[in-house]
Fold:
Amino acid sequence: MQKASIEKIRELTTQLNQYRHEYYNMNAPTVSDAVYDRLCDELERLEKKTGCRMSNSPTQTVGYEVVDRLEKTVHVTPLLSLEKTKEMNGLMRFIGSQSVLLMHKLDGLTVKLEYENGTLIRASTRGNGEEGEVITHNARAIGGIPAQIPYKQRLVVVGEAYITKPTFEQLRDTLRDSTGNPYKNARNMAAGSIRCHDAGACAGRGLVFSPFGVIEGLDEDVKTSASKFLKLMTLERLGFSPCQFFLQKKNPTEKEITAHISYLRTEA
Structure:
């Protein structure tokens, strides 16, 4: 029941923000004020019931923040980069007989979210892995980031903020990078947008956040704290939308791994 309510919150948040865009930016509303108000009331009721609210929820009237500069922050637990391989033999040697989680490698900018007492208190970039930049002011401009969650203990989540290829194609002719040139790819556009000083400018760029790991927290709720799979499933119940993944049990065969990779490629 809780999971269904949180899924509905994500759905209504996206839907109502689209209606707001049609009304304010396109002057072409597709629903009446009465329908919008009814859906907004439903969203507010679900937010109160579940303790979950997305950072870009239309029930919040706070405007977009502007900062003079991006403050630095130190990552107590370094955010390490991944090693790469394109060879199946190398991948199978790495997996060995252990269980493995296969998931999309999203192409954007790694972002860390910190929660205290159920409230998002800081969002920051990966930076060099040991020191990043604080981008909390842009959290409202990025879809998929809960501002309030029902989990009240400290929680640190790491994931990717990215721009989908269709959105990039729509924006590439109008947006420019810091040198005044068109962005070459969606990753560069995402990285530049996340670091905007004006959250209002960041808001119109279709950024989305998907978590891929938990650095702190959930140990009390997830008894097997080493299980990344269970923690990602718990994040989904808290309002996040993890990137798609598969859990392959121990002693996987190359055929099983190849099938999972093929499916993920199709979904990507």
The chain has two domains: 1-50, 64-267. The CA atoms of residues 126 and 132 lie 5 Å apart. Strands lie at 53-54, 72-74, 100-103, 109-116, 119-125, 131-133, 146-148, 155-162, 208-216, 245-248.
